[in-house]
Amino acid sequence: MAEGLSYRDAGVDLDAAERAKERLRELVASTRDANTLSELGSFGGLYSVPADLQSPVLVSSADGVGTKLKVAFAAGRHDTVGQCLVNHCVNDILVQGARPLFFLDYIAAGSMDENVVREIVWGVAQGCRDNRCALLGGETAQMQGFYAEGEYDLAGFIVGVVERAKLVDGSAVRAGDALVGLASTGLHTNGYTLARRIVFDAMGLGVTDELPGTGTSVAHALLAVHRSYLPALREPLRQGIVHGLAHITGGGVPGNLPRILPSGLGATVKRASWPVPPLFQTLQRGGRVELEEMDRVFNMGIGMIVVVDPKSVAAVVEAAKAVGVQGWAIGSIGAGEGVTYA
Amino acid sequence: MAEGLSYRDAGVDLDAAERAKERLRELVASTRDANTLSELGSFGGLYSVPADLQSPVLVSSADGVGTKLKVAFAAGRHDTVGQCLVNHCVNDILVQGARPLFFLDYIAAGSMDENVVREIVWGVAQGCRDNRCALLGGETAQMQGFYAEGEYDLAGFIVGVVERAKLVDGSAVRAGDALVGLASTGLHTNGYTLARRIVFDAMGLGVTDELPGTGTSVAHALLAVHRSYLPALREPLRQGIVHGLAHITGGGVPGNLPRILPSGLGATVKRASWPVPPLFQTLQRGGRVELEEMDRVFNMGIGMIVVVDPKSVAAVVEAAKAVGVQGWAIGSIGAGEGVTYA
Fold first, then answer.
1. Which of B5, B9, B193 sits opposite A12 (nearest CB)?
2. For B211-269, how does the pLDDT look when each residue is reduced to its tens digit (9 = 90+)?
3. What is the pTM of this model?
4. Residues of B in contact with A66 (CB under 8 A)
5. What is the CATH architecture of B14-166?
């Protein structure tokens, strides 16, 4: 019955999906490590628990890239968002002292452009290699009628491990501790709904226009890859000098730093202690955004805060510098609650 | 500057997101087990590796619910899709012999209806409890401009564990083995793009209409919860009688069973050996779909295939029956390749 319905007529092409998967095999294979037991195509990915831990605790996180994807669509660049996603997830488990083991991605689109999928997964695999993390699997979903032509959503899941005795949970934070802020590369993956509104609507710019004050294009400034702080923090974590870590994501410093502070303790952040990158000043002026709102939506140039004893500040700054990441003493812990700016 | 832009003006309400999270705390807590070390709100979820395994292998999978979500939107029912998602993921690692440890979800929508989010997460938590799996975390993403009003996407990620020596990978499958098919509850989570086209477009039905032949409404028939085969297979896996397992998802029996067959072996499936539920016959007639296409898109009433020695068929059928799941001897393994219908 030639006039009957098929899956392909309905908009789902299983053969194309199979071909796309085949093209990803090499990318996935590039992230394998000694503990990876499965290959792409098995129902579940297999990973052996590292045998060098006494009491291993798995640390896991799920995240997306948010509306930063809209900038990628506008710019036609799909190789950076996967790196952002992996690095974001790596940071989310790093703050508990964990190193990444493996990662899985979820890509959903109305119809699959094989080249776009390959570009996305290239970025995911690159992020995985950068963090020595295996890309263990993923799902590429054809969701007809869910996404606009040329658009997609991208989510990721990470599993890492930490020795139970080395868990970082902020309970070691005490009054008198110092805050070290580590430089972000830009917006990372937060605040894009507001940033796009400011840049594209209020300022009327396009992705190829120069973003005033930044010396670079809108696309370049807004697609800068979310930084992984794993290289910068590997040595401080090994030394056991870290009392607490806060990944500065949605909610900014005031929304994230208090999450790790013991009851009765607050943080004072000195505004002038680090250079807020021009990107944030441009956004603030362009959208006439109140400073308090800026602090709550954007990272303002600080992507990770490390809480340490004051005598360890130099060691953290040096360890970061050694891998090309700037760090500054930006404040301290004292009696109180939440975050106060000074 | 009252006329300046804020995140809320741009469509993202961080306070509402925080309130919604607070309402989920109890649901998440209902899934905790002795190995769950973290609470909702920490950057990453914490789970200790069970200490009762010699050589633990983690088995992980990511999946979505696909366009079954469109049926949920049309019916205004959001409490089943989370159960489908968890059960689908449980089955995907069960086929390698793994039992679930923990689960994370990803929910993305243009704007968040707190009640809908709660209904979705209720289903996810229910699925987790049913499978004795901790809901360790998740991400609820406000993605303005990505999803139509009232729509969302939902993805999940599971981590389970299996003793390395007890991994099921199909390598034990041999000529002469029998196939036991376990009953599905309906379409599970596959083929919905075609099924919706047939039911809503070709047949012109609405969600509250009766689906001919099924004795129930379109919504009820199409939203039936994807079955978890963990209860049915727990005992056969413990006994070590399972040679291979295939979860029948996208691609149907011909697309999934060969994934676990050793080179040189094929499967013969006897069509008359199990009763194809009326739902599938209605879809086939309604869309005038060729039988070969039906086999490739839908599970045709078999959601899981268990490959065992012929003498173990009764044990598997009995174990399934004991938990209310029907099973049938549906074919055998022999020299050849792929799946042949007889």
1. B193
2. 999 999 999 999 999 999 999 999 999 999 999 999 999 999 999 999 999 999 999 99
3. 0.94
4. 141-143
5. 2-Layer Sandwich (3.30)
pLDDT digits (tens, 9 = 90+) for A222-262: 999 999 999 999 999 999 999 999 999 999 999 999 999 99
The CA distance from A122 to the nearest CA of chain B, in Å, is 18
- CA B300, CA B287: separation in Å to the nearest integer? 15
| Domain range list for chain A | 14-166, 178-341
Q: Which residues of B touch A251 (CB under 8 A)?
A: 14
Give the Cα-Cα-Cα angle B281, B91, A37 (nearest 5 degrees): 135
**Beta carbons of B287 and A4 less than 8 angstroms apart:** yes
Contacts of residue A248 in chain B, CB cutoff 8 Å?
Answer: none
Check B93 against A43: CB less than 8 A apart.
Answer: yes
Q: Which CATH superfamily is domain B178-341 in?
A: PurM-like C-terminal domain (3.90.650.10)
For residue A198, the distance in angstroms to the closest alpha carbon of chain B comes to 8
pLDDT, tens digit (0-9, with 9 covering 90-100), for B2-31: 457 887 777 777 677 777 777 788 888 889
A198 in contact with B, Cβ within 8 Å: yes
CB of B303 less than 8 A from some CB of A? no
Residue type (1 letter), A80? T
Distance, in angstroms, between B292 CA and closest chain A CA? 10
Helix axes A81-94 and A114-130, enclosed angle (nearest 10): 30
- Smallest CA–CA distance, residue B317 to chain A, in Å, is 23
As for the ipTM of the complex, it is: 0.93
Q: Which residues does B138 contact at the CB level (< 8 Å), separation at least 6?
A: A62, B104, B105, B106, B107, B121, B124
- Sequence length of chain B is 342
CA of A89: how far to CAs of A157, A235, B38, B181, B304, in Å?
Answer: 7, 20, 17, 39, 33
Contact check, Cβ <8 Å, A108/B297: no
